[in-house]
Specification:
- The structure is a single chain.
- With 584 residues, this protein is of the alpha/beta class.
- It has 21 helices and 16 strands.
- It has a six-stranded parallel β-sheet, with helices on both faces.
- Helix 4 runs antiparallel to helix 7.
- It starts with a helix and ends with a strand.
Amino acid sequence: MGVLKNEVPSWIALFVWAGIQVGLFGYYFYYFHTDPRFAYTRRILGFGLAFARAPANCLNFNCMLILLPVCRNLLSFTRRYLCKCCLRSLRRLLDENISFHKLSAYAICFWTTIHTVAHCYNVEQYVAAQSSNTGFSVGNVSAYQLSSLGTGQCPVSAKATNWVNPICDRNSHSVLEAFKIFPAVSGIIITLTLIVIVFSATEFIRRSYFEIFWFTHHIFVIFFAFVLVHGLRGVVRSQDASHDVSYCGDKFSDWGRVENGVLVEPKCPLPEFQSNTPSTYFWIIGPIVLYIIERLIRFARSFQKVTISKAVKHPSKVIELQMQKDGFSMEAGQYIFIKCPSISRTEWHPFTLTSSPEEDYFSVHIRIVGDWTEALAKAVGADEQEFQDPSKMPLLAVDGPFGTASEDWDQYEVDILVGAGIGVTPFASIMKHMWYTYIQSKENNVGNCKLKKVYFYWICPDTNAFEWFSDLLGHLEDQMDEKNCADFLTHKIFLTRGWDTNFARNVALHEEEEVDVVTGLQQKTNYGRPNWDQIFSKTSEDHPKTSIGVFFCGPAVLSDTLHAMSNKHSSADGAKFVYNKENF
């Protein structure tokens, strides 16, 4: 049952995506390999024609898709206004936007490889057809004879029209000829651009040299510019229907031959060749327009004034920025992009909002790691005894907020929230909003809160990291005690390292105290890593026949574990765990 909930929607989407490409490849391969209008081009190129053109249409399809997952405003709008009435499984597909973006990129690389290899072969065949009487001949018509057709001018000339072979030099080299043909030159630029983008987007580059990833990824503008014009020259040509290929194939000597002012073979005039209308434009112009609108919205937002009202320094090299901005509206679990022009005018970095919609400011918690975050901390005075006066804070630009999987917390009766390290930040906003919504629904009958129980697990590397988040948990504990709702939230903190024998001895001495010696919270700290199998098993027993949302923010290794546990412990007649992961 867990597989049905967590995997099947993605599998169906993947099957449809792959099926469309298989269909496109099959249709266009058959079309270019059998259509009579390309008969004479096939006599020069053979299977190379179909193997070049079929992947080209699959490339168009993926180039159409790859921009849509990174239109963050479009996704947020779709999630908020168009998908509220949809099945939850369909909405969750929007949370896989980055994965789908990568998948489309892999497909572009795959089809580009086939398309490029096929056209390299085709250039060789064009050169061979001009230099010797060889080729894929049928009857009396050979590739060599077909290459001699035309106006007598070089086909690459703007005045030449009636040609089928773009190579005009009978003593040339394929590499040299490739650089004379615009589609070949543009194809080389497209391929080199793609290689740079793909290799700079690897996990190592993104984490270790983010600036390289950021800047090289934006040469996609060059990629799409040349994709749009790649087919304008129309090297692959078809002949008109007035020339009967099936009848004239064996009568090359009679093509266009006139005696006494009359064609000897009326069905065999000289074939008229023309380029096909490029189709790439029709595939990708829509997504390009949507992406341009997306960037214009971001550009306009970057000029809106953002005020840093307060900066707080927390342990473990974490700073909190509280900000205000006119017209800013957010939902719990959303994230924003921040740019600090005094550090870099081009770099935008994503951060999860840690404030709740009920507060009169919005905030982020930023871990100081890397050049940009270190420069930001210095700019707000984190390395000094006191932070700067708000009026002297650096100017910031904020883009967002944007929706994430965590927005769906209210779709379940029971929620399991799991944060690892700084990955706890989304749940600061969510838990505050959960509690406010729950108590409003219970006491004032405001809204209809479906949520009844929350389990929160925080896996933390050291004791210092507890301090900034434990204040929030302590505040929630006090409010739950005051409202007699202590069972609403169960939180467990797991300390994975940073403790020794002396530390353990100190903890043992204070074991009987009402509050935890490390965090000061009512619920005691756990030492070591959670037993997820046991946790999920116990939760399914406590909440049978219940839809349970599992929300996670943190490293991929732990994500895989929680995903597997959600599938394992779901059953048709028991609890159903629905896995959701934050993606930026």
